[in-house]
Amino acid sequence: MLDVYTQIASIPIGYNHPALTKVMTDPKNMCSMILYCVIPGRCTLLTDSNPRINGMKSNNSSSYMTGGFSRVQTMACGSCSNENAYKAIFIWYRNKMRGTPEPTPEEVRTSVINQVPGCPDLTLLSFMGGFHGRTLGCLATTHTKAIQKLDVPSFDWPIASFPQLRYPLDQFERENAREEARCLEEAEDLIVKWNQKGRHVAGVVIEPIQAEGGDNHASFDFYTKLRGITKKHGCAFLVDEVQTGGGSTGKFWAHEHWGLDDPADIVSFSKKMLTGGYYQKDSFQPDKPFRIFNTWLGDHTKNLLLTEVIKVIKTENLLDQAKRSGKVMLEGLYDLQDKYPHLLSKARGIGTFCAIDVKDEDTRNLLLLKARNKGVVLGGCGTQSIRFRPALVFKEHHAHLFLDIFNDAITELK
User: Fold this and answer.
1) Pairwise CA distance, residues 131 & 245, whole Å
2) Could you list the active site residues?
3) What is a single molecular function from GO for this protein (predicted)?
4) Which CATH architecture has domain 2-17+317-413?
5) pLDDT digits (tens, 9 = 90+) for 89-109
6) Are the C-beta atoms of 350 and 322 separated by less than 8 Å?
7) Is the pTM higher than 0.85?
């Protein structure tokens, strides 16, 4: 099988890479894995202090992947990464509001019975089409499919429109600029209105590309201006890189494409990073131990594998490989939508993080099935999109092979 989906973008350097096999079979690592399971302690890639006590300082040797952040908190998955990042934002915001990290006796008393002021009525702003996870806080910021949220109580938090761009982008620059301006104005208006009614917007959460919601893109200028709005109103800015991080866009983090000196306050990750967690500024580190805590605080045995993955990405120059393979992929998708305009549209992508729309959901699902039966694993997103998420070792000849098989599957639809 040619896997162009990789467990929803979760396999960084393919199956059975020799470097990872070596890590798994090294007797020294067998001992290390046992110790990491029992005593989550010094993790050579991500940390240099015990996560149970004080969060973690990012190791300077891993600046390749830290994006300039000074601290990291490991978690097990994308949902718990975002869930705990939300908590860090609320703690930071309350400390800022009261002017001290020390709570009042009334706040301490009311917090354990779910009442204000100990449990403040703060909010997070999210965007339609966003997906941030399946825990309760994350579901309140997830706006994709009803099946993910149905029958589950949620928080009443503000939701802004995400730009719905028209394609090809170069033919609709004026219309898309107006659409992005409308969404930015709406987001800022929501922040102002919710602050005025006492339900302060402590933070804004957004994906660099809305993956689960349909591979929805916005311009880099949109994110630059949104970042400016969060600074203007004192909101934290959380960039959810769970699916976009790890190199598939041609940069290690998709938000690096924005070209900002200060693109985020917190960046969450998982999937290609093999473990979960979030990078954060010093100011978002809780002032006391155990405020952000769970039993394992991530799977620290995965750091052994992640260390090797980072080495492979560097030595095999896989970020540039993603750019080259992505160019072949995207050009091929453009050709296919020109060849089958009644079936395909809106080819889009950065690096190998690509997608294309099919005319309707049923046809999309049938095309996925036909491709699978021909040996290609693909996945859908949104209502009618196919998303492509190959591993970083996906090369140009893999892209050509995929495009040939995909064309055959489309031909069978006719």
Assistant:
1) 15
2) 131, 240, 271, 295
3) pyridoxal phosphate binding
4) Alpha-Beta Complex (3.90)
5) 999 999 999 999 999 999 999
6) no
7) yes
